[in-house]
């Protein structure tokens, strides 16, 4: 893909005169003397070196009287080309009215062409490397098949979390992957728009591709970065390289067990409130409550209070706006990877941007207020711990900037509450369907003062069957050579199908679909001889894992899980309500899309 490509109006049409027809444009190689001589004027627009778009006005010697405008496009990554469109529009805004329209049309065409060239080249490289997969179309890739298969599956909700009915959970939440897996195996390539994704549900392949030194060759996919920017900013989830390592070093100690102990009170108080509301709700009724709604709301409140406090300053308002943003972003059914698809969601993007701006301003006020009073040591939330950590000698005195602190607060909120809430919600459902495990956990709570072993097994088993993060993604930062000789080209995304791996009978046995927490007693997932490493990935893998040598979220999740579950089991007996419909669905997370209705009987 060396050199440039030029877009020039064919047939001598002078589009600068305001009568361009997009169909007339032809792709011409630039660099031939007859075309690229004597540029009269050149404007380079774009914000980063790889985003260069040169609008070059040339005079062909043989067409002195009819100057053509030539747009030179460097073959850059198509996702970045959306930036180019924005930049081109900005540049064109300084020109006359019709020039604006022409520049816009040229830019759109340029983006599409660039994406087409890029996708075709990537497809060739992947096929050469031996990766097969369903045939994509341009510019949607395999999205039409994904949408059609999903539509055909959604009506098949079953009544309860009965294991036999749930045997095909993977095919229910990822019907397209199940179908392609049957044709192409556990590793194949599919396309979201013009973005190639290496689908992986084979732990051996995953280990070969990302284990050891290979791990550093993978980053977070660009294609999701922009979509998730309003949620995570440039916080830990999205940061890369040295910046990521620095953030992680500052943040990790704030999540230590000792620091989190100060949050037990917050968790217990919020949970008591939730249980009181449930107790009131069932008085005089049929005893049925949608526990998922309550648990999600409770977890959001806990993480907001634990992160930046909601009882003072503008905390409550930030919490409200973060929730509004989450609702907004969840609605969006984006055409991921499709060039220019963002332009179809302009209103929503604008709303998210405005909410983001308000949230940032409020958080900035909170941080400023904290900076003024940290010396008094009044607050024990994560924000204060981070402010304190930044000034400690252990971190080399490196403070996170206000901007970075804002992004981390948002990251904790979006990364931390829903995952924990979903783990708890699915747990309540499975315990309601398995009263013997409710009894076992109650007994453990009565008799044990230390480690709650059985509760640990239950948590692992729930995360295996219903992983709140049903997939983990990466993008190759460079060409990656696999031990078998295959090469994954730079820029290829990887989509690790956690649900498929967690429910694969070849990895977990013929009862893989059954709720059997005791399998984690005899068989800890990372130690069993016949089970490959990396077949249990609820928190991701490698350096970016949520639960790693340096813990980020696990301590908080584990503590909240224990507190909420213990308090709930002590207060109520749980049964699956007749109105419950089992409808697990992937909406970023793996959610019970019709809620979780349980009958609660006070104990
Ligand atoms: C059951 C609960 C949770 C689950 C299932 C979960 C899952 C995950 C997953 C799958 C990843 C991506 C890992 C990868 O790319 O390999 C991740 C990363 C992350 N999680 Fe969690 N998480 C949970 C709880 C939390 C909590 C409570 C917090 C913080 C308040 C949190 C903060 C983060 C952060 C900051 C990252 C990015 C780490 C990095 O890139 O270095 N998570 N989590």
UniProtKB/TrEMBL annotation:
GO terms for molecular function: heme binding; iron ion binding; monooxygenase activity; oxidoreductase activity, acting on paired donors, with incorporation or reduction of molecular oxygen. The keyword Translocase does not apply. GO terms for cellular component: membrane. Keywords: Heme, Iron, Membrane, Metal-binding, Monooxygenase, Oxidoreductase, Transmembrane, Transmembrane helix. It holds the Pfam family p450. The chain crosses the membrane at residues 103-121. It is found in: Membrane. Its cofactor is heme. InterPro entries: Cyt_P450 (IPR001128), Cyt_P450_CS (IPR017972), Cyt_P450_E_grp-I (IPR002401), Cyt_P450_sf (IPR036396), Cytochrome_P450_Monooxygen (IPR050665). Its main location: membrane. Heme binds at residue 546. One of its GO terms (biological process) is lipid metabolic process. Belongs to the cytochrome P450 family. This is Cytochrome P450. It comes from Digitaria exilis. The lineage of its organism: Eukaryota, Viridiplantae, Streptophyta, Embryophyta, Tracheophyta.
């Amino acid at each position: 893909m060396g050199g440039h490509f030029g877009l020039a109006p064919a047939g001598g049409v002078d589009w600068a005169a305001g009568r361009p027809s997009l169909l007339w444009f032809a792709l011409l190689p630039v660099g031939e003397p007859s075309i690229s001589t004597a540029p009269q004027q050149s404007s380079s627009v774009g914000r980063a070196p790889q985003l260069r778009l040169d609008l070059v006005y040339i005079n062909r010697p043989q067409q002195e009287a009819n100057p053509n405008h030539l747009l030179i496009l460097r073959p850059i990554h198509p996702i970045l080309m959306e930036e180019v469109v924005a930049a081109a529009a900005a540049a064109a805004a300084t020109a006359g009215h019709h020039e604006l329209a022409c520049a816009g049309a040229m830019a759109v065409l340029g983006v599409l062409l660039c994406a087409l060239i890029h996708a075709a080249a990537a497809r060739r490289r992947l096929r050469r490397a031996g990766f097969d997969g369903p045939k994509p179309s341009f510019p949607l890739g395999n999205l039409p098949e994904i949408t059609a298969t999903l539509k055909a599956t959604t009506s098949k909700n079953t009544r309860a979390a009965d294991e036999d009915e749930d045997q095909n959970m993977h095919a229910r939440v990822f019907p397209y992957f199940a179908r392609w897996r049957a044709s192409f195996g556990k590793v194949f390539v599919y396309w979201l728009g013009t973005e190639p994704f290496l689908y992986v549900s084979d732990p051996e392949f995953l280990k070969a591709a990302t284990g050891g030194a290979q791990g550093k060759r993978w980053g977070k996919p660009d294609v999701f970065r922009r979509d998730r920017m309003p949620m995570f900013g440039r916080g830990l989830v999205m940061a890369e390289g040295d910046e990521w390592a620095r953030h992680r070093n500052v943040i990790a100690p704030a999540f230590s067990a000792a620091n989190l102990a100060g949050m037990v009170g917050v968790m217990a108080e919020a949970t008591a409130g939730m249980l009181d509301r449930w107790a009131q709700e069932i008085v005089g009724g049929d005893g049925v409550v949608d526990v998922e709604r309550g648990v999600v709301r409770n977890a959001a409140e806990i993480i907001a209070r634990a992160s930046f406090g909601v009882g003072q300053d503008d905390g409550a308002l930030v919490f409200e706006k973060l929730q509004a943003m989450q609702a907004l972003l969840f609605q969006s059914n984006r055409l991921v990877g499709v060039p220019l698809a963002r332009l179809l969601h302009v209103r929503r993007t604008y709303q998210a941007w405005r909410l983001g701006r308000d949230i940032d301003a409020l958080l900035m006020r909170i941080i400023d207020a904290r900076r003024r009073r940290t010396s008094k040591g009044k607050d024990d939330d994560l924000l204060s711990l981070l402010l304190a950590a930044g000034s400690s000698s252990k971190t080399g005195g490196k403070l996170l900037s206000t901007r970075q602190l804002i992004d981390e607060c948002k990251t904790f909120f979006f990364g931390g509450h829903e995952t924990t809430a979903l783990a708890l919600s699915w747990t309540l459902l499975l315990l309601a369907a398995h009263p013997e495990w409710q009894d076992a956990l109650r007994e453990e709570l009565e008799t044990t003062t230390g480690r709650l072993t059985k509760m640990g097994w239950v948590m692992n088993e729930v995360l295996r069957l219903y992983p709140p993060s049903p997939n983990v993604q990466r993008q190759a930062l460079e060409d990656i050579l696999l031990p078998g000789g295959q090469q994954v080209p730079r820029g290829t995304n990887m989509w690790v199908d956690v649900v498929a791996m967690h429910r694969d009978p070849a990895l977990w046995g013929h009862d893989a679909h059954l709720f059997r927490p005791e399998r984690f007693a005899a068989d800890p997932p990372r130690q069993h001889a016949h089970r490959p490493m990396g077949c249990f990935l609820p928190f991701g893998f490698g350096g970016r894992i949520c639960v790693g040598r340096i813990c980020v979220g696990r301590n908080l999740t584990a503590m909240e899980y224990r507190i909420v579950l213990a308090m709930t089991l002590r207060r109520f007996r749980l049964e699956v309500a007749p109105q419950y419909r089992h409808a697990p669905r992937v909406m970023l997370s793996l959610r019970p899309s019709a809620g979780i209705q349980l009958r609660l009987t006070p104990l």
